[in-house]
Write a structure and sequence with these properties.
single chain, 328 residues, mainly alpha, 0% strand, globular
Length: 328
């Protein structure tokens, strides 16, 4: 781990410790408790502790509802939908994202409306409802037009999200146009995580259009950003995309080395959090192992094949043991 990554981890730890101390000193009926729980849940979410984050947001929402703070309740509900996506509970995520948007229907808060619609789009996309997802993103972009002071950031996020959907639909020309237009806006807004995701997505368009060299340049930049922020989940996704780019060029040794890096990043993401593993993480891990094993076979490397096979089995065993403990 780089010094930047270690520094980021230290910052997160200090934030968590600070919020937990304030929470312990706050009375149950104090409205301040809602803000503390929301922020503590958000920081825990960034660190991958999804079960804790979900509980904190549920508690924050309950307080917001009790005090009639509809906008705050909607924001907590949106965060809950985002967490449930990571846990692979797509139907619940869609329902909560829509609930957040409906809550905001009683309030003149177009920025929150746009954010909630983006959450609806995210949930629908993960569930596979791509056209409905695209419609939600387009509505969010139109709402952003009412907010000159937020227009660039909201349009950029909407464009990037829509570009991701178009790539998944195979509409590569549309995807390239949207992502290419979103990237400079995201960079200008210093939305680093969103910028790294958009770089990854445009790189996947490059791979699909037989431009692996361009893809690898974009992915190297995305990886540097993700590593500087210690965003383990983004690191895994970028490395998985690099594996695809290496596969497209027949660079088998580099693909397998990247699989090793991705496996280590995945272990960091899931370490100590087996009971909260979500479908997204399991699916990504399976893709990494599958591509690595197929490449090892193609390269005639029995030793590397069995290493990746054992890792795949170990991941499945850990998941089974976690599920068994959850049932008990």
């Amino acid at each position: 781990t780089s010094r930047c990554s270690s520094a980021a981890s230290d910052v997160y730890k200090r934030q968590v410790d600070g919020f937990e101390k304030v929470l312990a000193a706050t009375a149950a009926d104090d409205p301040l408790r809602m803000d503390v729980l929301y922020n503590l849940g958000f920081v825990r979410y960034l660190r991958g502790d999804h079960a804790y984050a979900l509980t904190a947001q549920e508690q924050a929402r309950a307080i917001a509802v009790r005090f009639g703070a509809e906008e705050a309740a909607a924001e907590c509900t949106t965060r809950m939908a985002e967490i449930l996506l990571r846990l692979g509970e797509f139907d619940r995520a869609v329902a909560l994202a829509r609930e957040a948007f409906e809550r905001l229907g009683r309030i003149d808060a177009p920025l929150r409306h746009a954010e909630a619609l983006n959450a609806v789009g995210d949930a629908l996309a993960e569930r596979g409802d791509l056209e409905e997802s695209a419609a939600a993103y387009l509505r969010a972009m139109k709402l952003a037009e009412r907010l000159p002071e937020h227009r660039d950031s909201n349009h950029a996020i909407g464009m990037a999200n829509l570009g991701i959907v178009r790539r998944r639909q195979g509409r590569l020309a549309d995807a390239r146009k949207l992502l290419a237009e979103a990237l400079p806006r995201l960079e200008q807004q210093r939305a680093e995580e969103a910028f790294a995701w958009a770089l990854r997505e445009l790189a996947l368009v490059d791979v699909a259009e037989k431009r692996p060299a361009e893809a690898l340049r974009r992915l190297d930049r995305a990886l540097a950003i993700a590593e500087s922020r210690d965003e383990a989940e983004v690191i895994v996704q970028v490395l998985a995309a690099k594996m695809e780019a290496y596969g497209a060029t027949g660079r088998q040794a580099e693909l397998m080395d990247t699989a090793d890096q991705a496996g280590e990043a995945m272990r960091r993401t899931l370490r100590g959090l087996a009971e909260t593993q979500g479908a997204l993480a399991r699916r990504q891990r399976a893709r990494i192992h599958d591509l690595a094993m197929r490449t090892a076979v193609a390269a005639g490397s029995a030793e590397r094949f069995f290493v990746f096979l054992e890792r795949s089995r170990a991941g499945g065993l850990a998941e089974a043991l976690a599920n068994r403990q959850a049932i008990r």
